[in-house]
Amino acid sequence: MKAITKKYSLLGILIILLLILLVGFPRYVSAYKVIFLTNVLMYVIITLSWVIFSGSTGYISLAPAAFFGVGVYASAILSKSLFLPVFILIGGLASFCLAFLIGGLTLRLRGMYFMMFTFGLVELIRHFVQWWEVNITGTVGRLVPVLHHITIYYAIVVIFLLVLLTSYVIRRSKFGLALQSIGECEEVAAHTGVNVTRVKVLTFAVSAFFIGVVGATMTMRWQYIDPSTAFDIRLSFMPVLMAIFGGMGHLYGPIVGASIFSFLDEILATKFPYYYMLLFGVTMFVVIRFMPHGVEGVIQKWNKRERRGPSETP
Q1: What is the per-residue pLDDT for 7?
Q2: Is 146:220 a contact under the CB 8 Å cutoff?
Q3: Which of 41, 201, 232, 262 has the least CB density, counted as fewest CB within 10 Å?
Q4: In whole angstroms, what is the distance from residue 248 CA to residue 191 CA?
Q5: What is the pTM of this model?
Q6: Is residue 314 part of a domain?
Q7: How many domains does the chain have?
Q8: Domain assignment of residue 253, given as a range
Q9: Which of 213, 165, 153 is nearest to 15 (CA)?
Q10: For the segment 183-224, what is each residue's pLDDT rounded down to a tens digit?
Q11: Cβ-based neighbours of 194, under 8 Å, separated by 6 or more
Q12: Domain holding 105: CATH number?
């Protein structure tokens, strides 16, 4: 009992320290570093949101770009007439409703079929929005009112704390146990009384809500958006790679994976623009080959060695 109490006390202290650092960060660094950390937190939020559903159930969703884009367009349409918290919330709810509808129709699919459908969903929505703008509104893209980067940063910090809290509560609840049982064996979960379809659909929608919220917020950094930027397919693949790199067994895994990959993405894209994708591919190959369980697996190995002691290490 004392060990558990000590563990949670340490966790609480770390969260408070993290919150203090995030709140005070913009006061001591340049605007570029604030914008860079905003990008990092954006990827962390999307990755954590993706892990809420896919990390537990084993259903690989490639739909984050669709939910992000829906949030972007909801923000672009409503930002001129509504307050910031309102249109951000509406962007999240729009993504939630889309995911709830799509999940109810398709979450009976499994494995490769579900993954391919979610990938096709991104392209379907992107082309539909582009067709709508060309044929109905008569233009492609929209001008968006830009907010100060500090305002966007603090909004992203609040969203990060909310998705972190949501992930923690789900993992520690009966709902989280139901998700884990679905991931281990869906048939057994159904036989033990878990309403498999309802749990999957609701979790899928909650995951999409946070992705839509961060999409609606990040729109305020851009002066102009169009279907290609809003529904960027990289936003579907990057969370998967970041989650694999960090590991999905604990909350720190996706956070570490998204943070390191965001940093690598920035360095490779700016310093090696012509070899960016090649170097990124090599990096992923090395990670999967030598770190199959991600950063989390490496940390667990170190912890086991420390517990054994130097004399027991083989």
Answers
A1: 52
A2: yes
A3: 232
A4: 26
A5: 0.87
A6: no
A7: 1
A8: 2-308
A9: 165
A10: 888 888 888 888 888 888 999 999 999 999 999 999 888 888
A11: 178, 181, 182
A12: 1.10.3470
